[in-house]
Task: structure prediction
Amino acid sequence: MTISKMWRGLQIIHGVLLASLAIYGGVAVNILQQPRRNPGASLDPTMIVGILGGLSVLMLLVVIPVVRAKGLPPRDWVGDGRSRDLEIEPDERAQQMMRKLRVALIVTWAFCEAVALWGLIATILFYDIRYYLGFAAVAAAAMVYHAPRRSLLEACMRAANLG
Result:
């Protein structure tokens, strides 16, 4: 698989995961249109949303960077005169590196998506769409920040082919 094909595939996967945030929003709106099943029960939203918010911060600031650092293959950012046509079919070593990169990116996006799911849980618990909107906005921003970059693919491919 050439770098262009892989990059296009990653863009599609990233777009689908990003679009899933809108689907979760639709689920939240649909749930809020239903009558509340147990209106007498009261949970303390401050504590639960605080816990979910803390988990989100932990996920975005600690877990994702660690997982990405461990999951990403070596990269060659320096163009020190070595070059190789990155559009040719890569050898087995380069293909393994590209699979490792794809897994690392998908896991990163899944962790970002989990933040939105925590907002959906808070929305279901408290019948308030604002919880989902806040968490989904943070999740979407994180997913856009961690979007697939062609330069990252090229750096990994160079490292695999030249290393």
